[in-house]
Amino acid sequence: MVLRLLYSNAGSRAILKDGAEISYNPWSDEKREFGEITRAECGENRYLGEKNILEFYLEEGCELNIAPRDAIQTLVRMEWTTD
Q1: Cα-based distances in Å from 59 to 14, 20, 74
Q2: What's the DSSP call for residue 9?
Q3: Which of 72, 39, 82 is nearest to 58 (CA)?
Q4: Residue boundaries of the structural domains of the chain
Q5: In the chain, what is the straight-line distance between the N-terminal and C-terminal CA atoms, in Å?
Q6: Which residues of the chain carry a pLDDT beneath 50?
Q7: How confident is the model at residue 75, as a pLDDT?
Q8: H or E stretch covering 64
Q9: Could you tell me which of 79, 26, 25, 28 has the C-alpha nearest to residue 56?
Q10: How much is the pTM?
Q11: Does residue 13 contact residue 36 with C-beta atoms inside 8 Å?
């Protein structure tokens, strides 16, 4: 199933599988957001920053964790650590 979590703040989040971060889907210049969920593998994900929605694919028997990312995201797709 594809889950969509709406957050009340603009913090960046990551999906972790077996302790490793799964990168967001590739950016789509056409849609001006991370690519849609294709259900290719458990943990596939994207973050819709303007709406503060984390969307990810979850399969039966697959365990995922959600963790805050040490990042600031902007509408111009710049990213840096808070350190």
Answers
A1: 17, 17, 30
A2: S
A3: 39
A4: 2-80
A5: 36
A6: none
A7: 60
A8: none
A9: 25
A10: 0.80
A11: no
